Amino acid sequence: MTTPVVSIAYHSGFGHTAVLAEAVRAGAADAGAEVHLIKVDEITDEQWETLDRSDAIVFGSPTYMGTASGAFHVFAEGTSGRWFTRAWQDKLAAGFTNSASKSGDKLHTLQFFQTLAAQHGMTWVNLGLLPGWNSSTGSENDLNRLGFFAGAAAQSNNDQGPEGVHKADIATAEHLGRRVTQTALVFARGRSAA
């Protein structure tokens, strides 16, 4: 069985989303993937080729004004050539985001990622966790403490730097990286059996 290639295509405005990207990377590597971190606002031709040969692409961006950052939108529009040739057809996709508010309309960013993936013919990998911190016995330290299903969502105070990213949100992003890699392994076994 070959090692799955997972690429994390992300933008980080102030460093918080970069912390999450690193957590996704750690989770994917822990599950056995070859992992590449790609900053979409600095993407090179070689990194575009890495995305093309990836088994899974995890999209990440802060949520600004209810959607992904402008830099991520530029990247998304830049994928149109791949859309036209179906270069990413049947790859896996997933996503993560961060904002200062607990909701902050982060779901819209995750849905933007899902739509981008769907247009490319990719298969979306959800978070696969029940919501945490939604009962009297729950805790802000629970995995998926903000209760998102589509992907990993984090909340970071707007008066703190990247060191303020909540440990539960980091652990949730690590979970997403592991889940994407495990799903890629299942898909690879299925393809080889077919």
From TrEMBL:
<dbReference type="GO" id="GO:0016020">
    <property type="term" value="C:membrane"/>
</dbReference>
<dbReference type="GO" id="GO:0010181">
    <property type="term" value="F:FMN binding"/>
</dbReference>
<dbReference type="InterPro" id="IPR005025">
    <property type="entry name" value="FMN_Rdtase-like_dom"/>
</dbReference>
<feature type="domain" description="Flavodoxin-like">
    <location>
        <begin position="6"/>
        <end position="154"/>
    </location>
</feature>
<dbReference type="GO" id="GO:0003955">
    <property type="term" value="F:NAD(P)H dehydrogenase (quinone) activity"/>
</dbReference>
<protein>
    <submittedName>
        <fullName>NADPH-dependent FMN reductase</fullName>
    </submittedName>
</protein>
<dbReference type="InterPro" id="IPR029039">
    <property type="entry name" value="Flavoprotein-like_sf"/>
</dbReference>
<dbReference type="Pfam" id="PF03358">
    <property type="entry name" value="FMN_red"/>
</dbReference>
<dbReference type="InterPro" id="IPR008254">
    <property type="entry name" value="Flavodoxin/NO_synth"/>
</dbReference>
